[in-house]
Structures are given as C-alpha cells and as structure tokens.
Amino acid sequence: MTDGGYPEVASPPMTAIDTRSFQRIADLMRAESGIVLGEGKRSLTVSRLARRLRQLKLPDFSSYCDLLERDDSAEERREMLFSLTTNVTRFFREPHHFDMLRETVLPPLVARARQGGRVRIWSAGCSSGEEPYSIAMTLLDVMPEAASRDVRILATDIDARMVAAARDGRYRMTEPDQIPANARRTYFETAQGSPDLLLVKPEVRALVHCTELNLLRDWPMRGLFDVIFCRNVVIYFDGQTQERLWVRFAETLSPDGHLFVGHSERVSGPAKSTFRAGGVTHYVKAPSGAKQHEDTL
User: Fold this and answer.
1) Contact (Cβ atoms closer than 8 angstroms) between residue 174 and residue 138
2) How far is CA 131 from CA 11, 168, 231, in A?
3) Longest dimension (CA), the chain
4) How far apart are alpha carbons 53 and 61 in whole angstroms?
5) What confidence tier does 288 reach under pLDDT thresholds 50, 70, 90?
6) Which of helix, strand or coil describes residue 256?
7) DSSP character string of 90-136
8) Mean of the pLDDT values across residues 225-233?
9) What is the pairing mode between strands 194-200 and 188-191?
10) The pLDDT value given to residue 14
C-alpha cells in the first residue's frame, strides 16, 4: 500500500480521463484559482497530471480526485494548480507596451521620483520574471538611478516555482534575438562556464520584489500603484471573475494610473466606465473617485 492508502500498481500510460473526474478537477481549479478548464483542456489536463498519478502510484484519475478532495491535501492541490497553470512569457513581449511605457508613462513618474515622490509598478502574473525585468530595464533606460529613489516593482504569480525562478533571475538563451542586443549588453552578465546562461544584473534585480499571490484571494498591498501589467492572465477566468478583477485593479490604481492587458483581453463590466483607452490594450484610470491607502510596499 502507498502512504495515501491506495494499492501499489504498475504505471500504465495515462491517455484518458473520465468525464466525472475531469469535472471534479475543473471544479477544484476554479475554486482554488478562478481558472476555467473548458472541455478543450481535457487532453492538456491528462498530459500535465499523468506524471503526478505515476509519482503517487494511483491507478486512475478518479483516485487522484479522491486524494485532491481530502482535507489534508492542500499541498497536492497546489501541485495540481502548478501543473495546470500555463507559463508562456518572454522578454519585452508585446513591445508596443514597453514603447508606451518608455515614451509616455514613465517620464512624469520619473520626474515625481526625482522630486522625492513614490512610484509603484505591479507585474501581476509575472511567471518566471521576464515581464517585471523588462519593466525594470525600461525604467533604468530613462532613470539609471532608479534604485536610489522610492521606486519599486512588485512581481507576483500564483505559482511558487515561477516566483522562485523570477527571484533567481537566470535565463538560458535558446535564440540569439531572445533579448534585444543593447539590453543584453547593459543589464545581463554571462554565467561563468555557461555562455548561454544569462544572469540579470543586481541593479536590475534590486528594483523587483517577487512574491507569491493568488489574484482571487486577499491582496496584502495597501498602497496604490501607478502602473499595473496584467497580461494574458484574466483571459483564463470566467466573465464574472474577470469583471471583479477589473474592479479590483481599478481600485488599486492611482488617479491617472495605467493598466496594460493582453492582446486578446478587454476591460469589461462595471470597471469599464472607470477607464479610458490609452492605446492598444492600454487603459488609463479616470482621476476621480480614487481611494487613498497607506503605502506598505
């Protein structure tokens, strides 16, 4: 018998999941993270979770669901969540956002910081860190002394493993143009003995604070943000959850704050009236009705 009370069996190839088990996993994913697993994700669910079944020596997905639903299986539910979360990212993804950040969004924020003011930027759904470090590099292009001012970038993700990778700041380069040449020269160093492994320089990492956060749970940050990047994250939630998140982002932005979303995402629901279009998948919060909170970041 295994520790979980299930009989030890040979490790068969997991190629299918019964409808009831798939629905149980989908319900758990939605409850834990808000992510919706539609019928089109059935094969992905099998391919991503088959390894867990083999490691746990479980005979089928029904047995795995029984394990997940136990009160003492919070850690395994986290493993399920990490396995089914999609982490697709790259440096300077959707470059028009970084052009807008450099040319329009940052100049007044830099001026404020140089006069002693605070500036806060949030990368919500940061994956392995490419997005927040791209933000930091863009900031350093226009404000080389940013680390000595009251300027911070918060990077959060639901996946603790991705947060750890972001904090580590090590990236293996598989394509020559993965990072623009100037950024590569200025903000990275090559790992000794591994020419294809690049390390984010300390002055870039100093601007970024990486931590685990589930967007559906409480947000411990009490200060307002000037810029929020939440791109290709909300698309995985149902419409109702999306609308609630847009409202929460609006409440967390400062007056005239900026929200960048993914190429297939649009602000919807009650929050829509709070924003005006600032560009392609870029929104600006109207200055009225903003709440003030004590800064704790």
Assistant:
1) no
2) 39, 14, 10
3) 67
4) 8
5) low
6) strand
7) -TT-SHHHHHHIIIIIHHHHHHHHHTT--EEEEEES-TTTHHHHHHH
8) 96
9) antiparallel
10) 54
Domains and CATH numbers, the chain: 19-84 (1.10.155.10), 95-285 (3.40.50.150)
Active site residue 48: yes
Residue type, 141: D
Cα distance between residue 75 and residue 165, in whole Å: 19
Mean pLDDT, the chain, as a whole number? Answer: 88
Q: Which of 30, 42, 48, 248 is catalytic?
A: 48
User: Which position among 24, 120, 149, 157 bears the catalytic label?
Assistant: 157
Tokens of 161: 């493993």
Q: Tokens 């409808």, residue?
A: 19
With tokens 């990236």, the residue in question is 171
pTM equals 0.81
pLDDT digits (tens, 9 = 90+) for 138-158: 999 999 999 999 999 999 999
